[in-house]
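Need the bound structure for copper (II) ion, inputs here:
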Amino acid sequence: MKTTLKIDGMSCEHCAQHVKEALEGIGGVKSAKVSLKKNSADVKHDETASLTMMEKAVKEAGYKVII
Ligand SMILES: [Cu+2]
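Answer from helper R.:
Posting the output first, comments after.
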């Protein structure tokens, strides 16, 4: 499965890296490709990783998922 998230609050590559690590720390997420330029994250995951979990992880890292 692949989910594209819109991320708010990223201002540099470190932010993008934080978001990537936060998303990849979720069980069920295989990889996360974060684009600072597009303010988005392409997340490859299985059915155990929910959108709610992704939102929570991004929020805990200090950023926001825009729905
Ligand atoms: Cu930053």
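Comments: Strands lie at 2-8, 29-35, 40-45, 64-66. The mean pLDDT is 98.
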